[in-house]
Each structure stands twice: as structure tokens, then as C-alpha cells.
């Protein structure tokens, strides 16, 4: 359970979770739905989402929401994932933030996570060293529903004469745009 410990980042993790929920207004896939359910269980507790960074407060709800996590091997599943996250610029002490904000990432094989990161971040012209920064801001970028929505956003903005370069820059700076409805 040490991978989930973010003792000095309690507030920020809860703040990110709240912000991600607030700016989500598109149809979502099962992974994001399960994550929202996990957030809602924690939010209903005393201390709410600010307790998200606390192992004691969130671990039970994490397992309740994602019981398959109990089947993971630290050596074969978690270690390669954490090493990959480090390789794209997410400091080891921040990897727990990504895992808590998008727990389904732990249930995806590391090779698939690598593929999704390359696909999602390649679309917005993120160079490898910046991948971690974008993922820390918005781990839901790995969700299939968010990735599908990207092309709709680009089409709409290009139809309004916004340059692709500017669209990519905006998404890198404020990836929450990817969860916003176009209507």
C-alpha cells in the first residue's frame, strides 16, 4: 500500500479530483465511471476528497471500487508501472497521485499504458519529457472516452479557424478541456 501514500499532498489530490469532476461534461466510459464512484464514496466521508491522499481513508474505498487491484502483483504489475511513470517524468513521490486520480491505470498492463500515453500525448504534440507533466495534471487523458473526444474538440476548433498548434498548446496547458462538452 506504500504506492498510494501521498501524505504531504492531501489537499492537492482532492483539489485535482474535484476539478476533474467539475469539468467533466461528456459521456464517459466504465473506467471513468468507476473512478467517479470511488471519488463519490470518499467525498461522502468526513473530510471529503481532501482525504484522497490519505492511505487510511482511501484504501478501503479504492479496493471496494476496484476489487481486481487485490490480484495485482507488486513485482510484476506495480513495479513496471511505477518505473514507466518515472521514465516519463513523474517523480516517484507523485506516482500515487496519478494512481489515485485514475485507478484503472493499475489494472491495465504496462505495455498498454505505454501505448495509451504515446497515443494520447502524441496527438497534442507532447514531447516525452513533458508527458509526465500532462499526466499529472489530467490522468484521465488515458481514458478511451477522453481520447475519443479529442478529435471532436480539434474538429470544432479548427472549424473556428483555431490553428492545430494552438489547440495542442491549450490542451497541454489545460488538459481538463478534454472532458468539456462541445454543446
From TrEMBL:
Identify a single GO molecular function assigned to this protein.
nucleic acid binding
Q: Name one Pfam family in it.
A: mTERF
Q: Which GO terms describe its biological process?
A: DNA-templated transcription termination
Key words of the record: Transcription, Transcription regulation, Transcription termination, Transit peptide
Q: Where are the transmembrane segments?
A: none
Q: GO CC: one term? A: cytoplasm
Instruction: Kindly give the InterPro entries that the UniProt entry links to this protein.
Output: MTERF, MTERF_sf
Q: Which family does it belong to?
A: Belongs to the mTERF family.
Q: Which PANTHER family match?
A: CGI-12 PROTEIN-RELATED, MITOCHONDRIAL TRANSCRIPTION TERMINATION FACTOR FAMILY PROTEIN
Q: What is this protein called?
A: Transcription termination factor 3, mitochondrial
Identify the species of origin: Noccaea caerulescens (Alpine penny-cress)
Lineage of origin: Eukaryota, Viridiplantae, Streptophyta, Embryophyta, Tracheophyta
